[in-house]
Amino acid sequence: MRARGAGVEAAACAYLVGAGLRPVAANATARFGELDLVMRDGDTLVFVEVRYRRSTRFGGGAGSVDARKRRKLVLAARQFLAAHREHRDAPCRFDVVDASGDPDAPSFDWLRDAFRADDG
């Protein structure tokens, strides 16, 4: 299961790099959780949550990023910024990459600015 998730995250990273983002960190752990990908989109620091579902029959992965998960991601992002002061003044956003289908060749739905830090 973890290997499949790592493969999907690597594929999502490659997809985002192809769209012009630059990788900063992957699987950045924090006290409050893990940030799947941290990337740069121009001057903006982007915290990316990658969600994989083999089938969207019961809803896509983006729908599983509920209020509790968003709060954990915001706390982890704040911790990341505190630990990496070179990024502290960068504008930030939270994206979700909804991956589905074959885990070896997933399709992606990239939701830019999927939620805000103050969405709670």
TrEMBL record:
Pfam families: UPF0102. Transmembrane segments: none annotated. One of its GO terms (molecular function) is nucleic acid binding. Gene3D superfamilies: 3.40.1350.10. Coiled coil: none annotated. InterPro entries: Restrct_endonuc-II-like, tRNA_endonuc-like_dom_sf, UPF0102_YraN-like. PANTHER family: UPF0102 PROTEIN YRAN. Belongs to the UPF0102 family. This is UPF0102 protein FZO89_17245.
